């Protein structure tokens, strides 16, 4: 009997020599739990062991010990710097495994440029580069992540005016955006009607709190039609027209 069994085992081994079984969980027993400072996934058969640690910890248990990939811990979005010198790249953190966001749904970020160790104060005003980002969530949990902001164009930033605005309150094209003007804070913009009268003007145009929205300087809506602009930016004068359409 023993001899027959021995022969069967050898035969089976020969036939299946090319079969590889990857790491897997056998059986359905297990659970996954997330707390404010700890995440634990488990099956059966082994004590929990620590596989990753910052302030928060991630534990695994059973026959499923993973090779943890740091990129799978943090999910984030990056907007590249649009052109050389724009400093308008941005980083937004969606989630961190085992570290919940603050009550307002966001994470606090401490951003340091890897190249020169300089601190970056605004995650929405970043030049292209690689950053070491400390992500801080609820109850002080935190995690470090290297994030790279790319550069969409290696050309120097150039001023670009658009010839249309639709200030109807739908959130699309309600403001007259002048590309890259925020890189040249010494500027002045004047809007004229067809009779040559100034209807709106401002200094320090920045597409944010100083931006034309189709109203005159008194805050009243201007009628639809063609208007003309004169911009003095960094010592250069730009002229053209812009159409209001609601």
UniProtKB/TrEMBL annotation:
Coiled coil: none annotated. It holds the Pfam family CHU_C. Residues 1-17 form the signal peptide. InterPro entries: T9SS_type_B (IPR026341). This is Gliding motility-associated C-terminal domain-containing protein. Keywords: Signal.
